[in-house]
Amino acid sequence: MAQKKKSSHKLKDELAEELAREKPASKRGSPVMTRLSDDLIEMLDILVKLDIFKTKSEAVASIVEKTLHELKDDIGALKTEITKIEKIQDSAKDAISDALQVKQ
Question: Which of 13, 21, 60, 91 shows its CA 20 to 30 Å from the CA of 27?
Fold first, then answer.
């Protein structure tokens, strides 16, 4: 039994160390509501029970932040492409608006 307890502490320490090392520093702001499967809730409960996170909310925030931080460059590229698309849409709206005003 002592070996099992030691193993769980080792796992907890490894997880906490990895998350702390990779956790981007930012302030928590706006709340976001979501529904998760029972399996995911169980995983979050385990992280809280192991004292890796204080709450499920903190765990979700940290995991989402870490994941999105890893995708930062890809998301930045997508944001650039979205801006281009929005400019094309605005141009198309202006062209249609101009065309409809001429016919009136």
Answer: 13
pLDDT digits (tens, 9 = 90+) for 65-104: 889 999 999 999 999 999 999 999 999 999 999 888 866 5
* Cβ-based neighbours of 50, under 8 Å, separated by 6 or more: 8, 11, 12, 15, 16
Question: CA separation (Å) from 19 to 7, 34, 58, 97?
Answer: 18, 22, 12, 52
pLDDT of residue 10: 73
